[in-house]
Every structure is written in structure tokens, then in C-alpha cells.
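Q: What would this complex look like in 3D?
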Amino acid sequence: MSNENAAPAVGPRAIVAGHGDFAVGLISAVEQISGRGRMLLPLAIKQLGVEDIEALLRKEMVATGVRVIFTDLQAGSCTMASRRILHGMEDAVLIAGVNLPTLLDFVFADSMPPVLAARHAAERGKASIVAIGGAPK
Amino acid sequence: MTLELFRIDDRLIHGQVVVGWGQPLGLKFIVLVDDAVASSDWEQELYRMGVPPEMDVFFHDVGTAATRIPVYRADPRAGLLLTGDIATMQRLAENVTPPLDAVNVGGIHSRPGRVQRLRYVFLSSEEATELRALEQRGVKVTAQDLPGARCVPLADLLNGSDL
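A: Here is my prediction, written as C-alpha cells for the whole assembly.
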């Protein structure tokens, strides 16, 4: 029996980069929920300088042809390095502050070009944050 | 309040600075001292976008920073001064009056010619000499990546005993 929801047999469509094991953890969650974790390539950044992060990201982008980078924190080293790489690259996008709903939306939007899918997913990710309870009296 | 911390960090503005130190110190401004960044609008925009909107960032070359530091020291808000390398901090220390009290080594990463001294500090022999020279000027030099981490004295940093 075919499974229409199975992940297509393609290489990664985006890089996820962040402090410590952030990327590995998020992609593990994506895989557990969707079975589509292979669409995302994790980069765990631990004690690297910005130049080393930039070189690592650039190497992976060249190797995979990926034009989408998700990072954890707007002020983070991964974001800074990504912005340097993407400066002048009109066909690439950086999404900073990624969360699990963003990545889930992205991996299921595989009919869209990756850059458009990433921008769409970012909007979904933003809208997915809600505060429940704890309202001031 | 004043300039709470003079930090050497080759990543300049990044998560540890904005969040790790920014939150507990209640930082309201960052003074980024770097000759190259001070002359590049694009670099400045890059770093400015990395901080929350309520935090100011001021960019200076070493010469201008030395003249502006008294103003920042008198600022009622809490601030942090950053350089990306030891040599820049040393040049600053040579030109600031009154002299710097203390310098924090927050992150100097691996590069050919450097030897690891801490998990987050790698130094060449020239850089070790520059740090000693700073201390000989009366500046207390310690290494500490985050507020909750051990504040490592220069002697321990240079002999790698905390590695």
C-alpha cells in the first residue's frame, strides 16, 4: 500500500542551525511527528567562531544546494554568519527564531519552492505561539 | 549605572552578549569598538538587527571610543563595551582616562597558531603577551563566558589549568 504522506525521497531542503543541540533536537521532533526529518539538515554549533560557522554553513549550502537556513536566535552567531552568506543572494532566505510549528509547516509544503515554503512557514510559526492562562487580574 | 563590562569576544554581538549578559545586567546599550565595523554601514546594520529594539548600539573606531567612554561611563543606564580582539582592547586601554579597571575575555576561538586555554578561549603566544601587558597596566583580566560561570584569573587562563 502506498503512503501518500510519506516524505519524498529527496535530499535536504533546508539547514537548521543553532546553539548546542538545538537543531538536532528540533529535527528529531519533526521526524517523530511527521517522518520528514530528512528534509532538514542539522548544524550543531558548539564553541565556534563566526568565521568557522560561516565556513561550515557555506560548505553545506554548496554541498546540498540548499537555499533556506533556519536559525534559533536573531542575535545568535548562526544568524550573523547566515546573514553574511546570504548577503546579495536573492534566491535564498534566512528565517531566524525558528520553532517546531515553523519546521512542520515547511516539511509539509514540499510542493512549493523551498524559499517560498520557508517564508510561508515562518508566518505559521509566528502565529502558532499562544499564551494560555496567567492573564493579569 | 555605567559601562558594566569591557568584553573581548570575537563574535562581537551574539546570544551570550545580548541574552546571557544582557538580561542579568539589565543592559540598555552596547558600545561596539571595531575599526572595520565603524566604517561599514552594512556591518553596523547587521549587528543592530541582532539586539532588541530597546537596546542601543553605538559603533566607534578605537580613537573615537576613547574620547566617548567618559560619556558612556556617566550614562545612567547599564552598558557593555565590546571589542573583537585583544589588540583593540589594548589600544583602547592605552588611550582611556581614567584607566580601565577590568577586562573580561568572553570568547576567542580556534585559529591556526592559537592554543586552547579554556573551552572558549584560544590564544597565540602574541595574544597571551598582550593580555599580560594589559594586566601590567593595572587592568584586572579574567575570562568568563557567562555570568554564572567561574571567573578565571589570567594566571589560570594562561596556564590552561581550567581546561
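A: To summarize the key features: The CA atoms of residues 6 and 103 of chain A lie 16 Å apart. The interface with chain B takes residues 19, 47-52, 73-77, 79-80, 83-84, 87 of chain A (CB under 8 Å).
Q: Very helpful, thank you.
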